[in-house]
Design a protein that fits this description.
With 132 residues, the protein is an alpha/beta fold. It has two domains: 9-62, 2,3-Dihydroxybiphenyl 1,2-Dioxygenase, domain 1 (Roll), CATH 3.10.180; 76-128, 2,3-Dihydroxybiphenyl 1,2-Dioxygenase, domain 1 (Roll), CATH 3.10.180.10. 19% of the residues lie in helices and 36% in strands. It is built from two helices and eight strands. It has helices at 18-29, 84-96; strands at residues 9-14, 33-40, 43-48, 55-62, 76-81, 101-102, 113-117, 123-128. The strands form two sheets. It has a four-stranded mixed beta sheet, with helices on one face. A four-stranded mixed beta sheet has the order 5-8-7-6, covered by helices on one side. α1 (18-29) packs antiparallel against α2 (84-96).
Length: 132
């Protein structure tokens, strides 16, 4: 048995395209901005996530550049969504912004969800979570 407990989890990564990445996750995916900062020792950043949730995403950009090449095409951020109509609305919004679905690296995701690459090439999966 583990005694580990974390009150909150933040997934953070740098980008050289902060505005585009924020627009992808905020306007395309629909995650609300829950915090931001500017000029902190040369860094700007934006946190997105579900309000009051114990997890969120943070994207940062440094004044001197913040390159962060995408990892393999099988490094994924998976969003489990119960409503298929919501998934389709997100897919349509992102496609209209220039982010179409892409084939997943791992065929497991072919029947489970839709894969989309963000502006930096990092991939998300919109997984249809069916109630039992």
């Amino acid at each position: 048995m583990s005694d580990f407990f974390a009150a909150r989890v933040r997934v953070a990564r740098p980008t050289d395209q902060l505005d585009k990445v924020v627009a992808f996750y905020r306007d395309g995916l629909g995650l609300p901005v829950i915090g931001h900062f500017e000029g902190h020792v040369g860094y700007d950043g934006v946190m997105l996530g579900m309000p009051d949730a114990g997890y969120h995403l943070e994207f940062t950009q440094h004044v001197d550049g913040s390159p962060c090449p995408a990892p393999t095409e099988d490094n994924l951020l998976v969003f489990y969504i119960e409503d298929e109509q919501v998934i389709q609305q997100i897919v349509d919004r992102l496609a209209s912004m220039g982010y179409p679905t892409v084939p997943p690296e791992n065929p497991y995701w072919l029947d489970k969800g839709l894969t989309i690459a963000d502006p930096d090439g990092w991939r998300i999966v919109l997984y249809h979570l069916q109630s039992s």
